[in-house]
Write the structure tokens for this entry.
Amino acid sequence: MMNGSVIAAIDVASLGDSLFLLVVFILLLLLVKHFAWGPVTKMMDDRAKKINADLDGAETSRAQAEKMAAQRQSELKNSKSEAIQIVNTAKVNGEKRRQVILDAAQSDAESVKTKAREDAQQARTEALNSARNDVAQISVDIAEKLIGKELSVSDQKDLIDAYIKGLTSADETR
Amino acid sequence: MESKYQYLTFIGLRFNVANCLSILVTALLVFLFTFLLSRKLTVKPGKGQNVLEYLIDFTNGIVKSIMPGDEGKPFYFYIFVLFTFILFANILGLFFQVRVNGFTFTKSPTADPMVTMPLAMITLLMSHYFSVQKFGFKGYLHNFASPVSFLLPVNLIEEFTNFLTLSLRLYGNIYAGEVLIGLLIMVANSMGVVSVVLAAPMTMIWQGFSVFIGAIQAYVFSILSCVYFSRKLEREE
């Protein structure tokens, strides 16, 4: 019975079905391609492209970040050494300045000292000179009074000077 | 169980109404399926888009497993539609059979050799077309006589056996499934309640198995199509 039905199916086979299937199938191919396959595969391609681009972008940005980190690290190192240098130069400068100030103060003090010494010397000689003149006058006056006779200062000056020299030398030896 | 069909004759061609209707229903279902799932396409796929993309990846995988690389690209779309169409056609007859006045109006369209034969014919014609496109007409003819010339008759016969096996395998599997379901229904109707209780689980099991067979046959048809494509594209010495 099975055999019979198979043969019967082929017996009543209709060529129209094959034609109908061909037409419908080709129509289906066109419709599906236009409405579903095209957009979906395009979207899938787009996604693949986007993922590729994103991966590439991530790689480059990561490399950039690493580069920046390295740069920052080296900058940090540089700034440390720079700071040390700045402190060092400041120290040296301070030392120099201290030396300069010290030197200036020393020379100032020296000059003040010498000036004071010179002043003192000058005052002493001036006092000595005026005292000498005074003594000469006084001794002439006394002698006038004693002798009652006018003595010229100029006449007697050599004598008095010699006398005073003897006095001062005696004073010095004493 | 004998199915009776209505026939129409148009310009000397006989049309089986049941086949034509179910071909139309299958094509409509495939179109609606792909059309509705491909609305609102986004780069981040939603639920429907995911299903469709999974199916596309699956059928692309069938092609890639036979033809890795760029040579398989022209067949991705054809294999996708072919697989979906045969899958839908195989499963349609399992749960959607309309019968009016003893005449069947819908069934699995693939349970008829006159439907599976043009499907196989499209595949084989495509394989010949791409072979000519790749090697030129001379190279294409030369391929029949390779690797040695005395294999020419074998190669020619192979073209026909390819066509027959491809179409009749699908037809036989699906037709057998439908016949067995018909027999089980006859069993259920034979002895009242007792036989219904007996036949119901068997019918359920067989229907489940038929879904499996339908999917397997769709897969086999697609993969064999790819094999024929690749053999037509490779054999050049």
Q: What stands out?
A: Chain B has one domain: 7-234. The two ends of chain B are 53 Å apart (CA to CA). The interface with chain A takes residues 2, 5, 7-8, 10, 13-16, 19-20, 23-24, 27, 30-31, 34-35, 37-38, 41-43, 45, 49, 52-53, 56, 76-78, 80-81, 85, 109, 112-115, 117-119, 122, 175, 179 of chain B (CB under 8 Å).
